[in-house]
Amino acid sequence: MAVIGLGLIGGSVLRALAARGHHVSGYDADPATRATARTAAAQAPANARWHVTATVADAVRDADLAVVAVPLPAVGGVFDELASLAYVGVVTDVTSVKGPVRDIALDRLRTGGQSLATFIGGHPMAGRETSGFTAADPRLFDDCAWVLCLEEDGAGLRDWIELAALITGLGARVVPATAEEHDQAVATISHVPHLVAAAVAARIGSDPLAGTLGAGSFRDGTRVAAARPELTAAMCGGNAEAVLDALDAVLADLAAARAALDGADPITTLVPWLTPGHTARHEWPPTPGETADLPARADVLLRLGRVGGWITSVADDGRTVRAVRPA
Amino acid sequence: MAVIGLGLIGGSVLRALAARGHHVSGYDADPATRATARTAAAQAPANARWHVTATVADAVRDADLAVVAVPLPAVGGVFDELASLAYVGVVTDVTSVKGPVRDIALDRLRTGGQSLATFIGGHPMAGRETSGFTAADPRLFDDCAWVLCLEEDGAGLRDWIELAALITGLGARVVPATAEEHDQAVATISHVPHLVAAAVAARIGSDPLAGTLGAGSFRDGTRVAAARPELTAAMCGGNAEAVLDALDAVLADLAAARAALDGADPITTLVPWLTPGHTARHEWPPTPGETADLPARADVLLRLGRVGGWITSVADDGRTVRAVRPA
C-alpha cells in the first residue's frame, strides 16, 4: 500500500496502516516532511514501521492501493503521475469534496482512452486543528465517520468492499454515500457552518464593544472563522452548487426567524421556530443503535448511509457487512 | 448588601461578595434553594459567610445595594416588592437585556409618582452551562466582562462608580455602555449566534447522513442550539429590535457569500469575503493593551466602552478609574 502526501491525514493513515501490520510506503513532495517521516519510522516498533520513498513511483511500485492524501489542488497532478506510471491498483483520496475529485479521476486516471486504476472517493471526517506529519496519530480514525463513495450501479463494488474492510480495520465507521450525497451533507454540516461563522465573526470588526462582551456562544459559534480564508474558500467554492442549496435552506429558515422577531409576539413565535434545531442538536451525535449483517450490495449500502448508518466490519468472504443504524 | 435570586449568577455574586468580607444576605423564592444556600453558608470559612433570609424584606432591610438576580420574567415582581418596601438603596440586575429592564425599573421602582431606589442595569457575561446554587462559584467573574449601564447625561454617576468599585473587586472587567449599546452588542455576539446555530442544526433533522458526518465545525457551530427553546426565545424575543438589526447585517453578508458562490469564480471571490471574519476572530478575545487613569465622567467612560475598553479598579476617592484599552 502507498500513501501519497504525509500531512495530518496522510501521516495518520500511514501510521494506522503500519500499526495494523500492513506493508506501507509513504511519499511527500516536501523533502523535510519525508525526513521527519523517515526518522519517525526508525523510532516505531519493528513490526509497525513504514517506508518513506523519494518518488511517487517508488511508493506505488508494489502497492495494490494508493491513498492520495494531498490537498485538493494537488490531486490532479498526483493522478497524472499515477497514470503516467500506468498504475493499475485501487486509488482513493481523503479530500472534502467528492464529485469534483471523481470527475478529475475519470479524466486523469487513464491513458490512451483506457481507464487504468479503480478510483473510490474517500473522506475521513477527522479533526484538523493541527496539521503536518508531526501531528499524525494512528488513532485519529477511532470511531471517525469515513465516507467511501459508491454509485447506485455498484461499479467497483468488490474493490469498495475490500477498501471498507481495510478502513473499518483502522477503527473508523465507514459511511456509504454517492459523491453527490456526500457533497450535499458536508455542505450542510461543514461548509455552511464555516460561512455562517465568518459572517457572525465579521460583525465585531466594526463593533469593539461587542468583541469585548463576546463569551461562550460567540467563541464556539465562530471558532472555524479562524481557519485560513484560502482553505475555507477552496472548500466552499469547490463545492459551490451543494453549498448554495444548503445556504439557501438556512437563509430561508433565518428569514422565518426574522418574521417572528418582527411580529407581534416574538417570544411565543420563536419557540416553535427554535424547536427543530434544538431537537436535532440534542439528539446529536448519533449513537449506535440496531446492528445487522447486511448483504454487500450497492443499493443496500447506500440505503444504510441515507438513514445515517455505517459499517463497522466486513465479513471475511466480503459478502456481508456488519451495519449499525443510529439509535 | 442583598442578593435576590440564588441561581448560578446570584449564588456566585453572593459567594464572591462574602469571600471579599462584605456583609451580605441572600434570598430565593425557592425554599429548597434557600436551604441549600444556608447549609453552604454554615460550611464556609467564618469570615466569608452569608445570611439567607426567608423574605425579600429581611434580605434588603439593612442593605444599601440590592442585586436582583432572578430571570427576566420575574424582575418586575421583585421591583414591585422593593417599591412596596419603600427600598431606597441602589438596585442592579444581571439579566441579558438592559433597555427593557431599565424601562421596568423606571415604571416600578417608585411609589406615589416618586422614584425611590437608583437603578443601574448590569450584565455579567459569565458562562451558563450549569445552573443553580450548587454550581455557584465565587471565582465565576474572574476576568469576566460585566456591563454596567450608564447614560450620556451621567445620571446616578456616583452610585455607578461605587458599584463599579465593588464589581471590579470581584475580579470582573467593568464595561461602561448605554442600555441600547449593550442590547445591540449582545444581539451581535449572543442572540444572533443562537438563532444561526438553531437554523444550522435544524438541517440534520431531515438529513441523517449529514448528522452522521457532522464533526468539529458542526459540533461547535451548533452547541447553543441545545439550550432550551423557551430560554433562547425569551432572550432573543426580549431584545427583538436589536436582534433584527444584527440579524439583517448577517443576512446581508451571507447574501454576498451567496452571490460569490453563484458567480464564475467562487474560490477567488470568497477569499476577500471571508477575510474580515477571519481577521476579527483571529484577534479575539481582546487582550489588555494600554492602561490609563481616566476621570470618572460619563462621556469618558462611555467612550472607553465603545472602543472595547474596560475598568479594572476605581480610585479610593472615586474620581478616577483604572482603564484598559484592548491591544
TrEMBL record, chains A, B:
Listed InterPro entries: 6-PGluconate_DH-like_C_sf (IPR008927), NAD(P)-bd_dom_sf (IPR036291), PDH_C (IPR046825), PDH_N (IPR046826), Preph/Arog_dehydrog (IPR050812), Prephen_DH (IPR003099)
Keyword NAD: no
GO molecular function, one term: NAD+ binding
Signal peptide: none
UniProt keyword Amino-acid biosynthesis, yes or no: no
Keyword entries, A-Z: Oxidoreductase
Residue span, Prephenate/arogenate dehydrogenase domain: 1-292
GO biological process: tyrosine biosynthetic process
Family (UniProt): Belongs to the prephenate/arogenate dehydrogenase family.
Name under which the protein is recorded: Prephenate dehydrogenase
Species this protein is from: Dactylosporangium siamense
Organism lineage string: Bacteria, Bacillati, Actinomycetota, Actinomycetes, Micromonosporales
